[in-house]
């Protein structure tokens, strides 16, 4: 009698693809198109050293005589510069690739810092409660009363004045990640606190206490996993917000220097040349920024609908 061999367990990718979220993703054309566009932009950005024909950080590859050449579809262009050149003679296609990578890096790292601060504060506030909870939430309310840009402008302006322009430009990435991350932690803290207040009264938390588990293990190993759904949704939206904040600060001259171009500093550097006819220096990076933020927000909206049982219709 022939014995049937057991079927191998499906891989994690197969489980995710066949889950409710995977099914919803396949059924949602907006989410599919947004994911494809985001992966194309992010993949091209992080592969910039391989894809880009020029290195915009290398002064030896810049020629001021090549400045303000239009894109390939406009008369007067040069064939080696597909999207034209900027005011410093850099290849705009290469500069956009490196700039997008820098904007994504700042956005993701700033959101990671937001999540670390907000989740830690939200867990402690919700689990401990009492006066500590009131104190931490009042700090969150005070933080929310100030806009991110206002806090960032004050902090970066003071930092630039204290350390000088050269030092500020050298560590601009660190300063931007720090100020954008610290300014937005209350979004995570309030969401996690609300989840902790609901979860800590349930039986599995009481069982963990009876077994002798400490507060840290209960918060991290038992309560935190039940807060992951709203955290994922917030993180998606916050990445888009962080990218916009970085672009706004760079446009105002308080972000990345022209020698380390991000999408915001590219838009800022080309703004003075719009009326002289060199519209592509600002317009093309601006389109990339709009598309990038749009697809991230669309993915965040889809994720919110799927992870919220009240909104998800299958």
Kindly describe this structure.
Its main location: membrane. With 314 residues, this protein is mainly alpha-helical. The protein has a domain at 91-307: MetI-like (MetI-like fold, Orthogonal Bundle). The protein is built from 15 helices and no strands. Helix 5 (92-128) crosses helix 13 (228-251) and helix 14 runs antiparallel to helix 15 (280-307). The longest helix is centred in the middle third of the chain and has 37 residues, at 92-128. The radius of gyration is 24 Å and the shape is globular.
Please give the number of β-strands: 0
**Portion of residues in helices?**
55-70%
Supply the helix-strand structural class.
mainly alpha
* SSE run: HHHHHHHHHHHHHHH
**Helix tally?**
15
CATH class of the domain at 91-307: Mainly Alpha
Low-pLDDT residue spans: none
Largest sheet: none
Distance between the termini: 44 Å
CATH architecture of the domain at 91-307: Orthogonal Bundle
Write down the CATH topology of the domain at 91-307.
MetI-like fold
Using the alpha-carbon principal axes, give the shape: globular
Please tell me how large the radius of gyration is. 24 Å
Beta-strand residue percentage: under 5%
The H-level CATH homologous superfamily of the domain at 91-307, spelled out, is MetI-like
Q: Give the mean pLDDT.
A: 82
